[in-house]
Amino acid sequence: MGDKEVKKDTGPNVIERILKDRGEMPQETMTFEEYLREVFLFNPKKYSRGAHKYLVDAIESYGTEPGLKFFEGKIFGADRQVRELYELLKSASLGNDVKRRIILLVGPVGTAKSTTVYHLKRLLEEYSRSEDGALYAIEGCPLHEDPLHLLSESARQELRGEYGVVVEGQLCPVCSYRLREEYQGDISKVRVKRIYLSESDRVGIATFAPGDPNTQDLSDIVGSINIYTIQREGKGDPAHPLSWSFTGAAFQANRGIFEFIELFKAKRELLNALLTLAQERQVKPGRFNLIYVDTVILAHTNYTEYNRFSNEPGTEAIRDRTRVVEWRYVLNPYEEERVYRLMIPNLDDYDMDPWSLRYPALLAVLSRLSDPEHKEFPASVRLKIYSGEPVEGLSEYAISSVYKKFEDDGRSGLSPRWVVDQINLIQVKKGYVSTPDLISHFSEILPKVIGEKMASIIRPIAVGRYNDYVKSLLSEVVVSDFESLAQSYFDRYRSMVRSWRSNEKVYVPSTGEWREPDEEFMRSLESLIGITSPSEASVFRTNFLINVGEVAERGEKITWRSHPKLEEAIRALIIKEHKSLLRAALVSRGISDEADRAYERIVQRLVRDHGYSERTAKRLLEYAGELVTYT
Predict the structure, then answer these.
(1) Among 615, 574, 535, 4, which Cα is nearest to 353's?
(2) Cβ distance 136 to 47 under 8 Å?
(3) Contact partners, residue 89, CB within 8 Å, separation at least 6
(4) Ramachandran area for residue 553 (φ above 0: left; ψ -120 to 50: alpha; else beta)
């Protein structure tokens, strides 16, 4: 990934387009009577949605099958957690009591808890600007409350009987006061406007992050007395409806999301206010009565804070009103790679070899596995299972049991933030990122971070997988007729296995003879992937024919890559047969002009066909020279 030329804009002037895009939305205002007749009656269900239903509709607007499409490309390796969160929200949207709970995301640092909430907040902003997400409020209301709050109890019963909609909540003190003083109690004349949820504009979305315990104040959540309006409007009465400043996060979050960062770092009085908001869906500010607030409370914290709080006496009430979604580290290295791609915004400007994200991802996932030396399911086996790779000798039931047996997997280990910091460090030091340099760097630093023993267990697994990749890659770029050779081995093995299965002889065109299947050749390939006994060979060959037959039935072309395990064996055989050629190509540079030309040809193949730059290709070959010499 080298330097890129900045292309000039060939369309309309970019600056002009930017200046025109001010994000302005049409301002719709009307009387409450007009709202009922011209808006509400066209879709009563739509315009009576509570905060949980509104959020669920926003998520589902992207589609829900086969997965929750809104989260695709935003959150990786967390399908279970995302689905669990969605199901809680869905239950709340149906009116179940879970809407009176705090939804708490718990997990180690760097597991995308805050990222998930961030995307949900941006989703609400986007959805409220769409036609399906149109949202209306009483004009001038500090809580941006639902216009239907103007209706009396008897009117609400009529709506419920006629349209099946339920209206919850009462007018806030400000709107109640204005209805009396400005509209003389005539709800039909109250002004209504369309609103657009926006965290920056303090409309429907709020975030609270506890700071220093000595500076935390309840007013951050419920607002405070407005001295100016007390003197001007309230005639010195602190209970006057206009004497309160409804700037607290709870009121700002009405109709949308209230995000509470590091929940258990908040003072107890703030948690008590949050508890009332969750359970009663109301807030008690100053001398006022309880005020209705409709919001989705999404909090997050780490294991340390959660466990500390859970063990404190007197915390039963808030724990009982909290629904926990455990957010663990990613355990699939391919998904972990995608996390890094999101975390490095200028990735396209980096000069990185194809494995410079894969290797750190393998290390990170391995560091998150509990009991890595387990007899039946060691770290190397679980890595394959979590990667979705086949594991020889394990039934589907045995594989599925791993997820229950190792419940601590993903609860600790290397954070994606820390890993990305190390990648960035190599980029700054070297000007490029190569996997051999990462191997050296992590070998030095890992024991200090996760301990000598854990580092000594997981490093050989990750390095071993990289070495297999290097040997396989080199066989392709060094052996000039690699593809045709690999295909010929595949075709020969397939022919032999067919004859073995049908108990027939094989015709040899070069001699014109019929001979027994070449058992020695078949076993030479099978032994390279750990198949040694006749019974294992019989099972493998039978499965090979079945799998290849399925490829043919799908109408796909059958090649030497059609069967992953046999592909592995063929690569290993070619490497074994051409090891001297590989060694000569890699370590003979400088001995002769021909050796130098061969080396440059290999470099160019790596650059042209395999995603390397010249620098990273040469660093790979330096590492590979040592690999083929000493292994």
Answers:
(1) 615
(2) yes
(3) 52, 55, 56, 59, 103, 296
(4) alpha
pLDDT at residue 467 above 60?
yes
On whether the pTM is more than 0.85, the answer is: no
pLDDT given for residue 403 in this prediction? 87
The residue-averaged pLDDT of 293-313 equals 93
Q: What one-character-per-residue DSSP string does 243-309 give?
A: GEE--SHHHHTTTSEEEEETGGGS-HHHHHHHHHHHHHSEE--TTS--EE---EEEEEE-HHHHHHH
List the one residue out of 37, 121, 108 whose CA is nearest residue 78.
108
Structure tokens at 309: 């709080």
pLDDT of residue 41: 95
Range 191-202 average pLDDT: 96
Say if residues 260 and 117 touch (Cβ distance below 8 Å). Answer: no
Q: Please name the residue ranges forming H helices in 287-434.
A: 303-310, 316-320, 333-343, 358-367, 379-387, 396-405, 416-430
Element (H, E) at 552: helix 534-553
Instruction: Count the alpha carbons within 13 Å of 200 in the hemisphere toward its beta carbon.
Output: 3
pLDDT at 2 (0 to 100): 42
Q: 292 near 168, Cβ under 8 Å?
A: yes
* Contact criterion met (CB below 8 Å) for 391 and 399: yes
Q: What is the mean pLDDT of the chain?
A: 89
CA distance 610 to 53: 48
Q: Which amino acid is at 251?
A: F
Residue 606 pLDDT greater than 50, yes or no: yes
Burial letters 471-504, b for 16+ CB under 10 A, else e: bbbbbbbbbeebeebbeebbeebbebbbbbeeee
